[in-house]
Amino acid sequence: MKKMPLYSFLLLILLLVIWEIAAGTMSELVLPAPSVIGFTLLDGIKSGYFTEHIIRTSSEVLLGLLFGGLSGLIIGILMGEITFLRKLLFPYIIASQAVPKLALAPLFILWFGFGMTSKVVITALVCFFPLLESTVTAIQSSDKQKLELFTMLNASRLQTLIHLKIPAGMPGILAGLRVSVVLAVVGAVVGEFIGGSEGLGALIIASQGMMDTPLMFATLILLTLMGMILYQMIALLEKKWSKPYKKEI
Fold it and tell me: Is the dihedral of CA 49, 29, 27, 9 positive or negative?
């Protein structure tokens, strides 16, 4: 994980100081001070108040990312390899992505109930398209000279896919996965907004009902940290995969 540059850290301190001063002139209901939010966050972590909600949202994010990402990867590889399949499915996939997920959430809850399943389905649907799009592009963008070399060596289509197209396209695929990771957090929270009693998204709705603005900000910080940690994990994996190919450029 990259360290924060000194000037970025100083900018953060400056913004927090300005925020602290500005919050002193307003009601805590409108804009709580960073110090108040920090105490709320620490108290919630120490008491275990956030633990159940963090586990629930993390589970939804990881499961949705697993199913949505795996589906996007497999279908993306097939669409990248088979022109007919790409032309057949792509219009329908684009149409499905044009529908706002927030509008679909009540329907999924009606179908799958208020439990974790509906949240995982929403998250998977959100994660699906970025990885599919990046996978199709990566599979189609293989080096022509290397493709010709594989053809000269009488490599089969499957061998070319496994040993050339997928490894060479992995940096692009992982770039799509980075986008999917961030969207996975959004998808899980959207599902919890619509119907759920557990999870960080449900906690935001509860804090709104209680008019507990510091708790709302503390929950948002936890969601931000969750997204950043997952993003950095994929970024490290992408860096590892991309290194051999960057040397070839």
Answer: positive
Contact 57, 203 (CB under 8 A): no
For residue 240, the SS3 value is: helix
Nearest to 143 by CA among 160, 158, 159, 131: 160
DSSP secondary structure string for all residues of 103-159: HHHHHHHHHH-SSHHHHHHHHHHHHHHHHHHHHHHHHHT--HHHHHHHHHTT--HHH
Residue 229's SS3 state is helix
Do residues 136 and 79 touch, judged by C-beta distance below 8 A?
A: yes
Instruction: For residues 178 and 227, give the distance between their C-alpha atoms in angstroms, rounded to a whole number.
Output: 10
Q: Which helix (H) or strand (E) holds 100?
A: none
Angle of helix 116-140 versus helix 166-194 axis, rounded to 10: 150
d(CA 69, CA 173): 10
**Are 136 and 78 contacting, i.e. CB atoms less than 8 angstroms apart?**
no
CA angle, residues 225, 226, 232, in degrees to nearest 5? 85
pTM beyond 0.85:
no
Cβ-based neighbour number of residue 151 at 10 Å: 10
Among left, alpha and beta (phi > 0; psi -120 to 50; other), residue 209 is: alpha
Q: Residue 96 — left, alpha, or beta (φ > 0 → left; ψ -120 to 50 → alpha)? A: alpha
- pLDDT per residue over 119-178, tens digit each? 898 899 888 888 998 899 888 887 778 877 787 877 788 888 888 888 888 888 888 888
pLDDT in tens, 74-122: 999 999 888 888 888 888 888 877 777 777 778 888 888 778 888 898 8
**How many residues can be counted in the chain?**
249
